[in-house]
Amino acid sequence: MTTPLKDLGHVPWEAIKDSSGSAEAIPVLLHSLASGDEPTARAALGDLRERICQYGFVVDQATAATVPFLWELARSPQVTCRVQIIHLLKNIADARQWESTATAYPKLRNYPHDYVSWERQARRAVRADLGGLRQLLAEPDVELVEAATELASTLAA
User: Fold this and answer.
1) Is the terminal CB of the chain with fewer CB neighbours within 10 Å at N or C?
2) What tens digit of pLDDT does each residue of 46-77 get?
3) Residue 15 gets which letter from DSSP?
């Protein structure tokens, strides 16, 4: 059996940002999501959502780095809020806030932070684990399969 989230240490969380500033809290939130009871996991997911996909559509620099760990947790049967993780992945895959704004206001591309690129990287990260999506579509949990089907539909568009 593999150790969950074993690759978290390979990401320089303190050097990248989320919506609150430094992304150094993300590993703690992911561990809480992985090993916590349902109330702990839901609280961690709520905080994580605010940090990497604020308002359900605004991603940040740390989002793409977090996505592979979300996929890992979504495939882990012991995780209590897998459906909500899939919904978060769908929100990230749908995110086009910065790209849409930059189309209307091209000067946004001159900002010191590359929001448009971060958004594209986050969407690519969600698409990178289609094998994980196929695994979720074969799960016996009907609610999980429905969420995975919605995500598959978003990724097919």
Assistant:
1) N
2) 999 999 998 877 888 999 999 999 999 999 99
3) G
